[in-house]
UniProtKB/TrEMBL annotation:
The lineage of its organism: Bacteria, Pseudomonadati, Bacteroidota, Flavobacteriia, Flavobacteriales. GO terms for biological process: regulation of translational initiation. Pfam families: Impact_N. GO terms for cellular component: cytoplasm. This is YigZ family protein. Belongs to the IMPACT family. It comes from Paenimyroides viscosum. Gene3D superfamilies: Impact, N-terminal domain (3.30.230.30).
Length: 202
């Protein structure tokens, strides 16, 4: 089981691909949600308000992935899918790639469009640094204050990341661990008397 994924940390530089007077501007952005996709798309549309087509593709998620490809008025599968193909080719997720087309008066045909959108998406992804991150599971640990030392000892021994904590009479600590440690960490806490562990829903 793999517990890492590749993504980008920063937006790409703007790239430009020209074909028979048509201009294709390409961008890659890191995204965490579909709401973010909409916001970025709105910004790019404002920036390129005289563009003819704003085509894009994105992939979001690590354990389960969702993706969308949009041709924005170009012939079916001539823009969105070639862009998405590059996201797959670079093996990245939590990424949005947008290509804005300014029509130059000469039709490119479906084959020409596929090449232009694919090349622009590739150029955008080539300008960014691709990083590897770990896929983590988050757990909520509940216990009485008197059991604090037991819990903290395990957190230290297993080198776990504390995300949040509320330390009162009733204590709650949110921890994160790598996906490959998931079962081991659950079992360790589950066997400690008077300590409860539950997986946090995404």
């Amino acid at each position: 089981m793999t517990d890492t994924y590749k993504t980008i940390e920063k937006p790409s530089d703007e790239v430009l691909f020209k074909e028979k007077n048509s201009k294709f501007f390409g961008y890659a952005f890191p995204v965490q949600s579909e709401n973010e996709v909409k916001e970025i798309l709105d910004q790019i549309k404002k920036q390129h308000y005289t563009g003819r087509h704003w085509c894009y593709a994105y992939q979001i998620g690590t354990k389960t992935k969702i993706y969308r490809a949009n041709d924005d008025g170009e012939p079916n599968n001539s823009a969105g899918m070639p862009i998405y193909g590059q996201i797959q080719s670079f093996d990245v997720t939590n990424v949005l790639v947008i290509v804005v087309r300014y029509f130059g008066g000469v039709k490119l045909g479906v084959g020409g469009l596929v090449t232009a959108y694919r090349t622009t998406a590739q150029m955008a992804l080539e300008t960014v640094e691709i990083i590897e991150k770990t896929i983590n599971t988050h757990y909520l640990i509940r216990f009485d204050y008197k059991n604090m030392n037991k819990v903290m000892r395990v957190i230290k021994e297993k080198n776990l990341n504390v995300v949040n904590q509320v330390l009162e009479l009733d204590c709650l600590i949110e921890i994160s661990c790598r996906l490959t440690q998931k079962e081991e960490i659950f079992n360790t806490f589950n066997h400690i008397f008077e300590v409860s562990i539950t997986e946090k829903e995404d």
